[in-house]
Predict the 3D structure of the following.
Amino acid sequence: MTANATRGRFVTLEGIDGAGKSTHVGFLAERMRARGRPVVTTREPGGTPAGERLRELLLGEPMHHDTETLLVFAARREHLARVISPALARGDWVLCDRFTDATWAYQGGGHGVDSARIAELERWVHGGVHPDLTILFDLPPAVSRGRLERAAANGRTLDKFERESDDFARRVRAAYLERARAEPARFRIVDSTRPVETVRDELARIVDAL
Ligand code: TYD
């Protein structure tokens, strides 16, 4: 947790594609607001005008994996400078749909980008800001694949990462779980194979304990 009591809390949501983060963002924000603090809800890649344009590129365009890594961190620099750091300094809470754990999982675990490079960019771009709490929505790739296929059948166009193989998703999931094991105080792993209501009950308990 952050040392300064006047500083807001920084909560991030992570998980493989189709894990259900987006389903729960609104509920989590409301529950956090009930704690009496303004909550800024945002996402990565994105969260700023420049970041949203980078998101379009990142999710649509095939590119070298190093380029992808540099672009997610470029979007993140903008996001931290314009949105996240000012909100935390005001004492607001920030709820961010994906953050740097996604880079470790997707670019590092999924694409094999060198971890020393990711660590260096993280040090440079974060400038000491780190999430206080990260909720990892966890489920097997076979289950998420089923959800993504149903979404596609209902007319949703899958993005570049959602079209990746199940093997890619397995590597991303393994990287997330490894990070959670390495930092158990920061992570809460939520079993996302359960019904929405059951997941919600657990999320409410997590937020109320913040
Ligand atoms: P996602 O968060 O799943 O958005 P939505 O719920 O709207 O589909 O999409 C963001 C995608 O970006 C996701 O597939 C993971 C990818 N991503 C990275 O590869 N690296 C990163 O550092 C971040 C933040 C996201």
About this structure: Strands lie at 10-15, 39-43, 93-97, 133-138, 187-191.
